[in-house]
Amino acid sequence: MTAERMRLLLPVLSLAVLLGAVFYLQPRAMSYFGLNLLFNLAIPVALATIAQMMIIMVNDIDLSIGAFVSFCACVTATFVHDTPLIGYSILLLAILGYAALGALIQLRGLPAIVVTLGMSFVWGGLAVLILPSPGGASPEWLKALMVFKTPLVPIAVIVPLIIAFVVHVLIKRSWVGVVLQGLGGNERAMERAGWSVVQLRAGAYGLAGLFGVLAGMCLVGLTTAADANIALRYTLLSIAGVILGGGEFVGGRISPFGAVIGALTLTLAASFLSFLRLSPDWQIGAQGAILILVLAVRLLFVRKGVTA
Amino acid sequence: MPDTQTIPGALDAPVVSLDAADMSFGLVHALRQATMAVAAGECVGLVGHNGAGKSTLANVINGRLSPTGGGVTHRYANIAMTNSENARNAGIRSVFQELSLCPNLTVLENLRITYWNMSRRNWRRTAKQKVTDALDLVFPGHDIRPHATVGALTIAQRQMVEIAIAFADRDSEPSLVILDEPTSSLDAAIAQQLLAHINRFCAAGGAVLFISHMMGEIFEVATRIIIMKDGQIVDDQPARAFTRSSIVDAMGHVAPDHDEAVVDRANRPLGNEVIRAENGLSARKGEIVGLAGLAGHGQAEALAQIYFDHSPLWKTTKTPEVVFVAGDRSRDGVMPLWSILRNLSLTTLNEFSRRAMVDHGAEVGLVQSWKERIGIRTDNLRNPILSLSGGNQQKVLFARALASAAPIVVMDDPMRGVDVGTKKEVYQMLQDEAARGRSFLWYSTETDEILECDRVFVFRTGRIAAELIGEEITEENILRASFEMQEAAE
Asked: pLDDT-derived band of residue A271, with 50, 70 and 90 as boundaries?
């Protein structure tokens, strides 16, 4: 338990440091409205990061999450808005498609990185077919939900916490989650204990698909429109978020709270750099530098943990 | 604890029985005509040298392998179900040397993984209770918390958890527990607890198949001992019919006629010491040093240590001190997409290059000359390496190392899956090269190869258990040193 907490300490600290820096630069951010603005766009990023976490949990990596979220956003802004029944059916099929992909990867022993790279073009192509130019509209209930004014603490802070808690219960507390993590920890042991690894991998991918769909829907609720390329950068953001939040690429070591905090930190890093009045040309590079810095600090932590 | 009384009519039925079971992987017969049975209340000790078929036998019993011939019958077997399902229903559990826990999960969660139909409500409490009970039962006084992450435990603690889970009362009760070298990472006191538990477990009607290299432990727990050799069961009698030396005698191969080689060796002058490692391993100029012992007792690690200690970390030099011949060809030997030529010249590229450019003329000349010397059977050196047979691929790897001017050659069981003819040729070549002043460090799991050596270090549990020179290098001495002969004193 203590090792687990150590793992979570670093993402929490880096978020706190960044938040402090933002408040120092821009004291007016320290308000209901300010916090909402800061973390608004973090909700879909957090959901996409959770989706990525499901894949990393079973020792794979998903390079199509950004394209998939874009596709889901396009479906939400068109079909779900116009003909809800067809729209939701498409989203459901997309989730099943993700699960089928997981089964295929396990059955044929394919490298997930290649399959998902290929799928990113498939999702991207479908998104362009559905919405060739930016547009569409958000379903009313979704828009209302995303701008809902909660008392005291803004919704942009509450929702990520709820997401993290729900996923924590699902993955860290329930036996289903334990079995899924076991697949990442020791695939052979799971097979020997008699579990169907195909079903397990399909399950993990299906969960990833579910959270990808939720990310796309939330994104449309926030932006009230969609575009085929709206979430492409989520692929790398989500991977970075999982790792920043204490996850490991192999071994099934992941943390839902960490992943969500990682996503918040990455979103905040972008705002922080704007407050610094850094030219947008340099922002991506600076964001990368922050990421490397945090990960380097974590490496020191881990090394110490090993020697201790 | 199994309660055999409640199982109608099953008391005298064996938990598992093998009837002339055969298991072959391609051309390799890992198990031949194995006939045996394990009854309730028995603790069967299983001994044998490397490749004798112990693991294959264990895997046939626990259902992971289905025999290619003959039959395996589990108690309450159902024809419609697979071998592994029957084994699971019969309550057969196994603990293998490679740890089969999930290191990212906690101790209690690892129990949940093996416990199929645990009720979903409050499963954490049930799992905690079960795993604590099992640990308390097998290892009283342990200090393992059920909430600890397995990855954070020591190797010994992980082994304890795995053993405890195997003995735990799960969806089915354990009827036969297969333990493969269970004490390898436990200290003496904990090992004693385990042996005591095995005795209790068997007295209560359970059965254990105990694979170990510690003779003391075998004699302490086993009621019956099965000896395997070359995939066959050569002896199967109550434990009291054996003595330590009669077991070693039964395990040995047919004595090979290597007398000439011995004479040859004795006459060859040896030079100064060229290698001395911390663990006591040493080699002199022109000497063939063998690393023997049961597989996985630290030989490969010792070789790797020597190789890395004598190789520069960053820069390859034109005069390397040591070269490496891989045994696991596909993992660390062959470049599968490259030609024979490029595979052979890989190690020596630096030695035979000029200003960072490969000297093609010299490369072809070198490869051509080695093709003649070592007899690689191909008509075109530009054919892909995989067009060669396994033995010829291995010759290419030998040539790759020997072509270098390095005075020390490290070999990690290089003759795996190589035919006898090739082996003889390679032995001769090694003797010739040694006569020219090269030193060889040779890890081998085959006794014939170890007998080719001038000096042999026998490894046991990561340490050197014996150093044999000249006449002392006999199969019997090697076996004696590989198996713990003293009472479990260490």
From this structure: confident
Interface touch A182/B105, C-beta < 8 Å: yes
Chain A touched by B88 (CB under 8 Å): yes
Show the 3-state SS of A68-101: HHHHHHHHHHHHHHHCHHHHHHHHHHHHHHHHHH
Contact between residue A69 and residue A212 where contact means Cβ atoms under 8 Å apart: yes
ipTM of this complex prediction, to 2 decimal places: 0.86
Residue B111 sits in which domain range? 4-251
Q: Where exactly are the structural domains of chain A?
A: 8-302
Question: How many Cβ atoms sit within 10 Å of the Cβ of residue A40?
Answer: 17
Q: Looking at the domain assignment, is residue B405 inside a domain?
A: yes
Are B315 and B386 members of one domain?
A: yes
pLDDT in tens, A60-100: 999 999 999 999 999 999 999 999 999 999 999 999 999 99
Supply the Cα-derived Rg of chain A in whole angstroms. Answer: 19
Number of domains in chain B: 2
> Does the distance separating the beta carbons of A181 and B102 come in below 8 Å?
yes
Alpha-carbon span B432 to A267, nearest angstrom: 68
The pLDDT > 70 percentage for chain B reads 91
The answer on B266 and B221 residing in a single domain is no
For residue B420, give the CATH number of its domain: 3.40.50.300
Interface contacts (A, B; CB < 8 Å):
58
pLDDT at res. B444:
85
pTM of the model: 0.79
The shortest C-alpha distance from A156 to chain B (Å) reads 32
Is B489 within the bounds of a domain? no
How many CA atoms are closer than 13 Å to the CA of B163, on its beta-carbon side?
Answer: 31
For A93-146, write each residue's pLDDT tens digit: 999 999 999 999 999 989 999 999 999 999 999 999 999 999 999 999 999 988
Tell me the shortest Cα–Cα distance from A60 to chain B, in angstroms. 16
Chain A residues near any Cβ of chain B (below 8 Å)? 1, 3-4, 173, 175, 178-179, 181-182, 184-186, 188-190, 192-195, 251-253
Query: Do B207 and B285 fall within a single domain?
Result: no
My answer on whether B187 and B269 are in the same domain is: no
Of A3, A190, A251, the CB nearest to B113: A190
